[in-house]
Design a protein that fits this description.
Length: 107
């Protein structure tokens, strides 16, 4: 595929880095980023306590991550699409809970 060969050229010529090492670093970083919201998501599901969470922060984060997913599709980066989609799932789920549980508290 064209994008794979272009990425390989960038790694070999510009960065002088082994493509395997670069891809491994990308996957490790992607996994850390993707799953960093999992503990907060599980805690929020369990406690239903969203009072200390910033709705504006989660809205901005979700918009940013959605933009990265779209960009990843555009540049054909499977890592970017997969890991940012996972991150968007967890952050989006928290955002939905913020909206849901704050509405219940107001009633």
């Amino acid at each position: 595929e064209l994008w794979v060969s272009e990425t390989k050229i960038i790694y070999e010529r510009k960065l002088k880095m082994n493509p395997f090492i670069a891809e491994t670093i990308g996957y490790v970083g992607g996994m850390c980023t993707a799953f960093c919201f999992m503990p907060q998501t599980l805690k929020t599901i369990k406690t239903k306590d969203v009072q200390s969470l910033s709705m504006v922060s989660y809205i901005l984060y979700c918009i940013g991550i959605l933009s990265w997913v779209i960009y990843g599709v555009y540049v054909h980066s499977i890592q970017m699409v997969i890991f940012n989609s996972i991150s968007l799932f967890f952050a989006g789920y928290i955002l939905i809970m913020i909206i849901k549980y704050r509405q219940k508290k107001q009633l």
